[in-house]
Amino acid sequence: MGKWQLAGSTAVIALLAGTGAFGDVTPEEVWQNWQDMSASYGQAVTAADAARDGDALVVSNITVAYEKDGVKVEGTIEEITFTDQGDGTVEVTMSNSYPLKVTVPGMATDGAPAEPTNLDITVTEPGMALTASGTAAAISYDFNAPTLDVKLVASDGAAAEPAATVQINLTNVTGNYLVEGDATARKISSAFTADTAAVSLVGADKETQSDVNFAMKVANLSGTSNGTLLGADAMADMAAALRAGFAADFALNYGAATFDLTSTDAGSPTKVTGTSDSGDMSFALDVNHLQYGGGGKKVAFTITSPDIPFPELKIGYDEAAFNLVMPVSKTDQPADFSFLTRLVGFTISDEIWGMVDPTAALPHDPATVILDTKGQVTLSTDIMDTAAMESLGDAPPGQLNALDIVEMKLAAVGAELTGVGSFTFDNSDMTTFEGVPAPTGKLDLKLTGANALLDKIVAMGLITAEDATGYKMMVSMFANSAADKDEMTSTLEFKDKGFYANGQRLQ
pLDDT tens across 134-149, in order? Predict the structure, then answer.
C-alpha cells in the first residue's frame, strides 16, 4: 500500500506543485510548459490571472479539468508563484492547500442506473520547497516537504454522509525528478524518501449495519522510478504505446510497519492487527517484458472474531516473496520468463493445530513452500492487445518452449519434498500427451520424513496401518528408498515420447 501512496503523492507534487520541472529556467517558460504538458494529457488548465511581480510570475485562481470515459476531475489552486532566483533556477511555491473533486460513474445493476461516486480530495503541503533547474531539453527539480497530507472523502450520489474517509500523511518527504523530451515522448526518472507514512480509513453503511476502521503506519520509505511517457492519445492503445516506446518501472522499499483493522458486519465485530519488519515492491513494463514482484519479512497477524471458535488466531511467517517476469509482445524467437513464489517459516497458532492434532502427535515446525521456475515461450499474440486476446477464444497466446524448475520445496509436519528439473517441449507433437506439447527432460525429487509422518497419522487414527502399508508399497514402485534413513528419491523423466519413473516406463 505504501508504494501507491507515495506514487500518488509525488504525482500531485509533480503536476500541481512542481511543474517547473517540465519547463525551461524562466518563470514564464515554466508556466507555459506546465500548461502544454497538461494539455497533451487531455487536461484543461486555465488561470484567471498571470502577472509579473518583480522576479516572480504570480499565477492565480488556477483550474484543472479532465474528463474521460465518464470520469471527471476538477481542481482549483488559489495561487502558484514561479520565482527567478537569478542563477538559472526557478523556485516554485503554491498555496498550502488545494481541493480536487473526482466523479466516477456508478455500475448499473438490474437495468437501473447507479449513482456516481464522488471523491472530494484535499491536498495539504505546508512548507513545500521546490526548485527547478536545467535546460529546456533536460529539466530537473528537487523538492522537500516537512509534511504531505491527503484527505479523501467518498460519497455516493447526493448522499449527505460520506461512505468512507481516507487520510494519508507523509513526513519529511524529499526527492528529485529529471524530465527530458517533449509532449510526444517524455522521459522521467525520479527518487524519493519519506521518514513515515500513515494511512487511515473510516467507512460505514447504515443499511447493512457494517463499518470499517483501518490504520497503518510505515517507516523509512524509499523509491525510484523511470519511464518514457507518451501523450494521452498514444496511451489509448497499450500494445501500440509499447511499440511506440512507452516504458515504466518503479521500486519501493519500506521498513517496519504496523496496521490495525476493526470491522463490523451486521453487528458482528472482527479485529485484525499486524506487524512486519520490512518489505518491497517492484513493477516494470516495456515492449519486451512485464515484471511484478514484492515481498515482506517477519510478518505477523492476530485475528479476533466471533466467527472463529477460539479467542484469537495468530499467523506469521519469516519471509514471503513473489516475482513474475514474462514477455508481452509477439516474438519470432523464444523469450525468457520466470516465476517465483516463496513462503518461509509459516506458523499458525496452537488453537488451529488443536483442531487437527489435539494430541500434538505431529511436529508443529514452521512450514515452507518454494517454487522457483524459469523458461522460454514464443508469443503469437501481443498480451496487451485486448481485441487480439479476445479473438483467441480458448487458444493459448503462444507456445511453451522450455521450463526449468530451479527450486521446489515443501516442508511441513516433519516431512520435506524437494525437486529440481529441466524440460523442453515439442510443439509440433500435441497428440502423444493429449493436447500438451510433448516434453523431454527430467525432474529429480527427494522426500524425507514421509514414513515417520505416516506412522504418526496411523497413531492418530486418521488412516489404518493397512492403508499406510499400501501407500508405502505404491511409493516404492516409483522411488528408491535409503536403507539407513527415512529418505526416498525419484527421477521422473520424459523421453522418446514416453514417461519413466526411475527408469521404469509408465506410459
Answer: 877 777 888 999 999 9
